Amino acid sequence: MAVKKVQEVFEEPACGHNQAKSEKDRKKGCTKVAMPGAAAGGCAFDGAKIALQPIVDAAHLVHGPIACEGNSWDNRSALSSGSRLYRTGFTTDMNEMDVIYGGEKHLFKAIRQIRDQYNPPAIFLYQTCVPAIIGDDIETVARAASEKFGLPVVPVNAPGFAGGKNLGNKLAGEALLDYVIGTMEPEYTTPTDLNIIGEYNLSGELWQVKPLLDRLGIRVLSCISGDARYREVASSHRARAAMLVCSKAMINIARKMEERYGIPWFEGSFYGISDMSESLRNIAKLLVGRGASNDLLDRTETLIASEEKEAWAAIEAFRPALSGKRALLITGGVKSWSVVSALLEAGLEVVGTSVKKSTAEDKERISALMGEDAHMIETLTPREMYRMLADAEADILMAGGRSQFVALKARVPFLDVNQERRFAFAGYKGMVTLVSEIHRSLTNPVFDHLRKPAPWQPECRLTPLV
């Protein structure tokens, strides 16, 4: 069953990578295996865990050695407006005796202990490499525990060796489709119920978008999975429309919910002023097409005009210092084009953007934004990144936390735009925050001191003391 599910995810028809493949290559799936030491991007288990852990009122139990839970806990700053249970790490902490005799009984006892002590609305149960290798059947254990204790136990069969983080994201989506979505009904429905898919509320970014939707009378029925509650996800099949924020992560959820429940969807971005406005327009159009009042379109335009005016006024103060500055963007997926749009709006020049995790559609959007001469980087070694920064080809590096040391060595400002960031960049207010952080990094006086020769270097001449 697990092998069949992995193959099904490999052949996802809505995936941009699969659309560009031949039928023969599509059946091979994403079978590239990482070389030893090259798996810093995360494994399938890690991808599944980070995709589902933002369901904040559920318990997330990792079946495996304690290091799997330790390494996967808190690697994303997904915030909650309520329950803190998702911040508690649960693991079976498998040992040598479990490997010899099997860990299924141990797992069942762990589920019972969580039920007795925390009584969550559901438990997500994650498979890892060691129990998968010895043959522990988490689906059977989950089914038995659900019947015994009367609460949903959701098996997430995504052992690390199955593939990379992106595969794990999709396997997490399959678990929701198979065991969660459609199992409950919402207390009530409205003509403006919306699902947001692939948004994880990193640093509270959902909270910068949701107030805008509230002002339009649009209810977020479910966010999958940022700041989500289990019941919201379980009843998300009653939404009238959906927005997909990161197609690489959970496109299978959007496609299958359209097939099963007739929920239309589009892919959009909350980064940048123009992209944010376009997303609001698309949401309104889909909802009006599904029965919402026609005046939603006019109210959306009124809101956009007001928010854009306020955002542009706030950004204008930073523009003189940012105009002409060059940024190197090393990220991927939807951010490879959505953040580009935001930077160009702020007056910066983007000298290059990584497209390693981007689809063909992502690349087309980059070309539309940056022109035919757009510098799209497939791979960039730390050595080459350092050369670009040291040769002053870029004034600031915007990337994930692992790249910050290259920037510091090159004595160039760095801004974290990946999942570990502590600032929210979504929505109109998020755009102002992004521009403010770029400005603060570029104007930090410490870099002027760093670039000066050290006192012992021959270029430096000390003034003699009098």
Structure explained in plain terms:
The protein is of the alpha/beta class and 466 residues long. The protein folds into three domains: 141 residues, Rossmann fold (3-Layer(aba) Sandwich), CATH 3.40.50; 123 residues, 3-Layer(aba) Sandwich (Rossmann fold); 133 residues, Nitrogenase MoFe cofactor biosynthesis protein NifE, C-terminal (Rossmann fold). Helices cover 47% and strands 12% of the residues. A five-stranded parallel sheet has the order 11-10-9-12-13. About 2% of the residues have low confidence. InterPro entries: Nase/OxRdtase_comp1, Nase_comp1_CS, NifE, NifE-like. Pathway: Cofactor biosynthesis; Fe-Mo cofactor biosynthesis.
Structural class: alpha/beta
What count of helical segments does DSSP give?
Answer: 22
| Cα radius of gyration in angstroms | 24 Å
Q: How can the largest sheet be summarized?
A: 5 strands, parallel
CATH fold-level assignment of the largest domain: Rossmann fold
* CATH class term of the largest domain: Alpha Beta
Q: How many structural domains are formed by the residues?
A: 3
CATH superfamily of the largest domain: Nitrogenase molybdenum iron protein domain
What is the terminal-to-terminal distance?
83 Å
Q: Which of globular, elongated, flat, extended, rod-shaped describes the shape? A: globular
Mean pLDDT: 86
**DSSP strand count:** 13
Binned strand content: 5-15%
| Poorly predicted residue ranges | 33-39
Give the CATH architecture of the largest domain. Answer: 3-Layer(aba) Sandwich
